[in-house]
Structure to design on (311 residues):
C-alpha cells in the first residue's frame, strides 16, 4: 500500500510535536489530491443539525485548520458507502461522530449551501447524492473536529475534509488502496447499512430491458445474506431502479422484476429468510447518474437495499 504524507497541508511547519500520532486514512482506489489549503489560526463553523427551515445549528471551533479535497477515480460506490469507509477509520482512531446525515435527511440544497465547501472543479456535490459527518476527539487545549462531505459525479467519488484543532495538527497519512473500488464497495456493505440504513448492490449487472441476473457469483449478495442471518430482526426492502429508456410504467414493472430476481437469488441460492425481504421498484424516478451516456445508464440500472425495520 502506498502512503502519501501530507505534511505541508496537515502538519504546518513547526506545529507537529514529537509523540503525536499521525491520523491515517485509506482511500478506496486511485485517489488524487485536487485541493489543499491551511491556516495556522482561524475560527470555523460546522453544521451539526439538518436544515431546520431557516438555518442549521452550528458548532464553532478555533485553532489550526486544514482543508483538502480528494477525487477517487472510477468509483463505483455511493456517497454513503464512501462515508462509511472513512467513518469507520476515524472511529478506530478515537474520533466520535456527533452528527451525520445523507442528502435527503440533511435537507438537500438548503443544507449544502449552509456550509463552506470548496467549489468546482475540485469538489463536486450532487445535491441528491451526498453524505455528511462531523466527528470530534479530545486534543490538547480542547476538541479537534473533522468535517467530512462525500459525493460522486460521473465516474468519480469526491471527499471534502476539514480538520480544525486548538492545538497542533498531527500529520495525516493518506493511503491509496490496492483494492479496486468495487471491492471496497463490497467490503463496506454492512458498514453502510449500519451507518445509513441503505446501500447499493453495486456488483449486479442488468442489461437494458432485462431482469435476469447473469450466471456469476455476487459478493454483495453473499454479504447481504450474511448480514441478514446475523440480524434476524432486521427487515429490508430491495428497491429496483432502471435507466430512462422506455415508458415509466414499463420501467416500474422492470425495476420491480429486478428486485424480485435479487430477492429470489437471496432466498433460493443463499438461504435468506423470506420474511426479512420485500421487493419494490421505482423505475427511472431516482437516477444517480445522467441517462444521456452509456455509463450513466449502467449506473442507473441498479438495486438498492434499504432497512425498513429492526424488530
Amino acid at each position: 500500500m502506498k502512503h502519501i504524507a501530507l505534511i505541508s497541508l496537515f502538519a504546518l511547519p513547526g506545529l507537529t510535536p514529537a509523540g503525536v500520532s499521525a491520523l491515517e486514512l485509506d482511500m478506496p482506489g486511485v485517489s488524487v489530491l485536487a485541493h489543499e489549503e491551511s491556516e495556522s489560526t482561524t475560527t470555523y463553523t460546522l453544521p451539526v443539525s439538518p436544515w431546520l427551515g431557516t438555518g442549521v445549528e452550528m458548532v464553532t471551533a478555533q485553532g489550526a485548520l486544514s482543508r483538502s479535497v480528494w477525487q477517487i477515480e472510477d468509483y463505483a460506490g455511493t456517497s454513503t458507502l464512501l462515508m462509511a469507509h472513512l467513518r469507520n477509520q476515524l472511529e478506530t482512531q478515537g474520533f466520535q461522530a456527533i452528527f451525520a446525515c445523507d442528502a435527503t435527511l440533511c435537507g438537500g440544497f438548503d443544507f449544502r449551501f449552509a456550509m463552506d465547501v470548496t467549489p468546482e472543479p475540485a469538489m463536486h456535490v450532487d445535491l441528491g447524492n451526498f453524505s455528511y459527518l462531523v466527528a470530534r476527539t479530545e486534543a490538547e487545549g480542547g476538541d479537534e473536529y473533522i468535517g467530512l462531505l462525500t459525493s460522486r459525479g460521473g465516474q468519480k467519488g469526491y471527499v471534502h475534509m476539514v480538520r480544525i484543532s486548538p492545538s497542533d495538527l498531527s500529520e495525516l497519512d493518506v493511503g491509496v488502496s490496492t483494492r479496486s473500488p468495487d471491492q471496497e464497495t463490497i467490503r463496506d456493505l454492512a458498514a453502510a447499512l449500519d451507518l445509513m440504513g441503505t446501500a447499493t448492490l453495486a456488483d449486479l449487472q442488468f442489461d437494458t430491458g432485462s431482469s435476469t441476473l447473469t450466471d456469476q457469483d455476487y459478493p454483495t449478495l453473499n454479504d447481504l445474506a450474511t448480514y441478514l442471518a446475523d440480524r434476524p430482526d432486521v427487515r429490508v426492502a430491495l428497491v429496483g431502479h432502471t435507466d430512462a429508456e422506455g415508458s415509466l410504467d414499463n420501467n416500474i414493472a422492470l425495476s420491480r422484476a429486478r428486485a424480485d430476481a435479487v430477492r429470489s437469488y437471496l432466498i433460493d441460492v443463499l438461504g435468506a429468510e423470506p420474511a426479512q425481504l420485500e421487493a419494490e421498484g421505482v423505475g427511472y424516478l431516482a437516477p444517480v447518474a445522467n441517462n444521456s451516456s452509456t455509463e450513466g445508464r449502467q449506473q442507473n440500472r441498479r438495486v438498492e437495499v434499504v432497512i425498513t425495520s429492526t424488530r
Remarks:
- The first strand starts at residue 2 and ends at 5.
- The chain has a mean pLDDT of 81.
